[in-house]
């Protein structure tokens, strides 16, 4: 009877150890480089008279409420900027040589769960309230051409100057 009890106890221990081993195994969750991210807003600068894309020289590009400067110098015609995912507006100060204007982008965030390792990404819908606060007014007009930010390939806003 003792051999039977010992045999049963040994089997139970083996089953428990096997079960614990299987339960403790965890999938390797790795967010692969190049996975989907939260997209940035794409802004294109246009000549106000000809309505053609023209590069602009910005001395500083800074987000309000963020301690760091995004660009110290910018001299292209397309700009991609991040939006704050936990708010419904982001403001940028655009310094063009001796003048500066403030671009206020109003939007709605749409959060999408990707997986356990990558977490969430956010897409955005731009509201019509997007505006420019002019100090001296180098920017003439802001027009929204694509109000949904689900990729960075399409221009979302034109800034006419």
What's the total number of strands? 11
Helix segment tally: 1
Q: Percent range for helical residues?
A: 10-25%
| Overall spatial form | rod-shaped
- The ordered H/E elements are HEEEEEEEEEEE
Give the C-alpha Rg: 27 Å
- Low-pLDDT segments, ≥5 res: none
Structural class estimated from helices and strands:
mainly beta
Strand composition percent: 35-45%
Total number of distinct structural domains: 1
Characterize the largest beta sheet: strand count, sense, and whether it forms a barrel.
Answer: 7 strands, antiparallel
Kindly, what is the distance between the CA atoms of the first and last residues, rounded to a whole number of angstroms?
95 Å
Mean pLDDT: 85
């Amino acid at each position: 009877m003792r051999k039977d009890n010992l045999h049963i106890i040994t089997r139970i221990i083996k089953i428990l150890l096997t079960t614990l081993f299987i339960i403790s195994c965890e999938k390797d969750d790795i967010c692969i480089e190049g996975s989907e991210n939260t997209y940035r807003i794409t802004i294109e600068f246009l000549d106000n008279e000809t309505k053609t894309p023209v590069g602009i020289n910005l001395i500083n590009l800074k987000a309000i409420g963020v301690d760091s400067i995004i660009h110290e110098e910018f001299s292209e015609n397309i700009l991609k900027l991040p939006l704050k995912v936990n708010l419904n507006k982001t403001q940028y100060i655009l310094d063009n040589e001796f003048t500066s204007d403030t671009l206020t982008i109003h939007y709605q965030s749409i959060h999408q769960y990707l997986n356990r390792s990558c977490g969430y990404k956010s897409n955005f819908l731009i509201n019509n309230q997007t505006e420019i606060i002019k100090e001296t007014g180098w920017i003439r007009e802001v027009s929204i051409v694509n109000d949904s930010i689900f990729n960075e390939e399409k221009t979302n806003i034109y800034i006419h100057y």
